[in-house]
Each structure stands twice: as structure tokens, then as C-alpha cells.
Amino acid sequence: DYVFSLLTGYQDPPAGIEIREGLNFNPYFPGGAIGMARVLYDGLLEYEDGTPATTSQMAKDVVVFLSWSAEPEMDERKKMGMKALTLLAILTGLSVYLKRHKWAALKTRKILYK
What we know:
- By secondary structure, this protein is mainly alpha-helical.
- The protein folds into two domains: about 1-70, Cytochrome Bc1 Complex, Chain D, domain 2 (Orthogonal Bundle), CATH 1.10.760.10; about 75-114.
- About 50% of the residues lie in helices and about 5% in strands.
- It has helices spanning about 1-10, 55-70, 75-110; strands at about 25, 35.
- Strands 1-2 form a two-stranded antiparallel sheet.
- A hairpin with a 7-residue loop joins strand 1 (about 25) and strand 2 (about 35).
- The model has no long low-confidence stretch (mean pLDDT about 90).
């Protein structure tokens, strides 16, 4: 969210705020003044599928790529997690069935006779 906000948050400084030469105003950067110029503009590139190249779309693409490059194994980990949850659900159902089946005789048995 921070990188997306930083890439899309460039704007003119509000009245009363002085920004030094060579700096740009971005409210999402601590202090509000950042040395990096705005790098994403509407229509900067063309997507093959015809998606409009808005600043927010390009910033989202950058954020998704950075997220993937930080954890390229995330998709494999999610698949493994789903397999583990499926196996646990099957084993839980099996154990509940076996518990009811095995303990049914013991729960209904009389221990004390008169």
C-alpha cells in the first residue's frame, strides 16, 4: 500500500508549504518532500490486451511485481496449504466417525448392575 501510495501520490504542494528546488511534494513520503520525480504518467505505455495505462494501473503492476519478486514461492506455498487443509479435513472427519463408532459400545455399557 505504501509503494502504491508513493507512486500515485504526487501533487502540487498545498498553500503555505515551501518545497526546495529539485524536490517534489508527496504527502505519503515522510516530510512531504521527495527527491524522486514522478515516474508514472497516464498513457506512458501500451498494454497488449488493451488495458488503459493509467497511473494507478501501472503502480498496481509495479506493486504486484515487487510482491512476487519478494516471495516467488508464494503460489507453491498456497497450493501446499490447500492440500494440507484438505488432508486435515478428511482426517478430522475420519477421526470423528471412528470415535463415535468405537465409543458407542462403551458409552451404552452398564458398569453397575443391581
